[in-house]
Amino acid sequence: MAASIKHELFFPHPPAAVWEYLTNAELMELWLMKSDFQPVLGHEFQFRIGPKPALDFDGIVYCKVLEIVPFKKLSYSWKLGPGDGTLNVDSVVRWELQPKDNGTELILDHGNFVILENMGMFNAMTEGWLSNMRKMAARLNDITHGTTNA
Amino acid sequence: MAQPTLDAFQVIADPSRRQMLMLLSKESRTINNLADNFDMSRPAVSKHIKILYGAGFISIQDIGRERHCTLKQDGFNALHEWLKYFDQFWTAKLKNLENLLNNKLPN
Hints:
A: alpha+beta, Alpha-D-Glucose-1,6-Bisphosphate, Chain A, domain 4, 2 domains, 29% helix, B: alpha+beta, Arc Repressor Mutant, subunit A, 5 helices
């Protein structure tokens, strides 16, 4: 299973109309969630979604605009953690808009998952795991020792 | 004694259990052999083993009088929990967007 989430949707509206809904915080709130998003490269913002204790997630998503090409492309980092100041998931959300048949093909790609901290193991798992177990063991050892020495 | 059901993330959050998984990643070991690597009581080791077993991280086989622990892949499918979680998240959100755009905006 590829560590990426992909969705493709067609809208019978021009890219500019769809773009508005991806980049205007008031419109985003109508379908996505409340945020302090601004369509500015490097802008940092947060989304608040439901906490998920089972996944050690406090419900706050930390984002930063990584790429913005009006009416065509938008991407932001998507990081989250348990709420103690550490992060355990780092990923990237990419939106792409393509004009098609008098409408817009909207492509969402949520990928580049890096599972940090004690989730390092799981990250290794996605790429064929037994061979990675040894590398991972070394890495975890480093982490363990780092903590002990702190 | 009943063990609380922990998900894979809770299971792996414990340093001793991570250490056990690392030891088992090199080779299968008996519970006694595993316990020798830890400065904790035998019941405490057993408790961790039960949790690892319960979450599908290891399998246990009785050979003679010894119980052998072997690493299993099932427990590691938890990364997929994140992907599943966000996949469901986006599916629901994009449905909202679709309804919003296609019902409210004139073509």
